[in-house]
Amino acid sequence: MNTQQRNKITVVLYYFFLSTFLQASDTLFIRKAVISELSFQNNKLSIVEEGERLSYDNYNWQPTSIPNKKCKCDFLKTFPNQSVRDSILYNKERYYAISNTLVRSCDSWSFGASFPSRISSLVVMPDNLLLVGTASDGLWIWDGSAAKQLFLQDLDLPQEVTDLYMIGNDLLVSDGNKLISYDLASYKKSLLYFSENNKIDITIDPIDNLWIADGNKIILNNTYENIAKLVMHIEEQQGSSNKDRSFRFTSYYPAAPSQVQYQYKLDQDENWKLAEKGLLELRDLTSGTHKLYARVVVGDEFSLPIYQEFNVAHQLSDTYWPIVLSIVSALLLFALLSLWREKTTNKKWLEERRKLKLENELLRSEQKVLELEMNPHFLFNALNSIQGLIATNKNKEARKYLNQFAQLMRIMLRSSKEEKLTIKDEIKFLTNYMQLERLGKEDQFDFTFVIDDALDQELEIPVFLIQPILENAIIHGVVPKPTQGMVTIEIMQKENQITCKIVDNGVGRNTGIHDKRADHKSYGVQIIKDRLQKYSKKYKLRYEDLKNKDGSPAGTIVRIDLPIL
Fold first, then answer.
1. Of the candidates 205, 235, 198, which has an alpha carbon nearest to the alpha carbon of residue 221?
2. What's the CATH number where 194 sits?
3. CA–CA separation, 341 vs 335, rounded Å?
4. CA-closest candidate to residue 135, choices 219, 39, 52, 199
5. pLDDT by residue (tens digit) across 174-194?
6. Residue 538 CA to chain centroid, in angstroms?
7. Domain region containing 275
8. Quick one: CA torsion of 396, 397, 402, 407, rounded to 10 degrees?
9. 160 pLDDT band (50/70/90 cuts)?
């Protein structure tokens, strides 16, 4: 026996020793024919032997249909007579391995990268790089734009790659005969399985067990087994009575089905209890909603618990007296609440009515005080002006203004007793007022009325709302102006609302020119706003400042919305 033969025997014995004694590998099934494909379909172990697909279900191998995996992507027209070897989702896009080319997307596809030999497997690494296994040129890393061959320090990577898997930081590489684990964190290498005579096929189940098809044998390697990932199901079955429930627990653990046990706890229970043979009978449950928790137990390991809610309906015989007492208590409580609510509502209504009455009386008092403050000043100026006309023998004009003064006084006396007057009387009152103000200011301004033709002048509006605005326009607007002033009063009707627009070409509001009665008029404007708010919040007093082209003040527009009474 030469040195080469001895080395070959040593390697074979080394691999056999590692796979038999150092790794957690067990032969679970031995079939009559060679297994050509191994996978998991619908969470069940599936194999293909002699062209027939079988699935292991309920301790038996059952024939199943072979799924049609034929790819229909557009790029197949560019690669005739080629099939997709592997595909993977990377950076939110699907990549396909066909021949030695990596293709991005299925329909609107594009070339990703080309490699020296056929691509056999794809896997995403923890650092979000795509690892590409080739049939004869080893492993390659692709970052989405460029590819380079992978080398690991002091580790020999196989040049022939048939399968790739990532479990945590461990890279699993198969060359068709052996399965090797590379720890990418510590750069350690471990042999997981070796077959001397057969090509092996590998797949991973939902709890990270490695399943290896070696000829006609199926081997389980549980190096990475994670029982916490084991999926279980709770099936509820109707019990013999409303207060009884039956549950059946199931899971898929083909490695050792007989070792699987189930534990449960109900609602707020602290301790887990064993459900014999995966069956649970609950008796004499209380009415209401319950929450059942369950988990799989394999040796000393547990799956993540799941829960299922179920409801136990109330029975009249169990709840007769509580229902009667509840109804009586509810009726009594409802009666007491109704009495309390009615008393509270009446008290609140009386308080609001009393408050509104006091507020109205206060506003009327404030209005009368304002009128009393305005009347002596206005009367003095008007009578002084008429006296001046008489002294200059302008008797005709004096009689005219004296008649207007008398009409004005009559309307003012009447408005002091009533809260409303017609628009016709309001216009007459404002006309007399403006004439007398113009006379007292020695014709420093002119005025005009613009009345909407559609306006019904017999409608009634609140008294003494427009006159203070006009007085403001005269005293603070046109009188301080060195040139002739102009005041326009426009009254229009829109549906159930009267709008009065007062426009003056005076000095504006922000010139700083004020007389000693400025505070008094500001107080009067506030009373007008308060009175409007008592009718409705939609009635408002709005100001608009007019400007010349150079930005200097050109007057003021005041709009006041009047309710129709």
1. 205
2. 2.130.10.10
3. 10
4. 199
5. 999 999 999 888 888 899 999
6. 35
7. 228-314
8. 100
9. very high
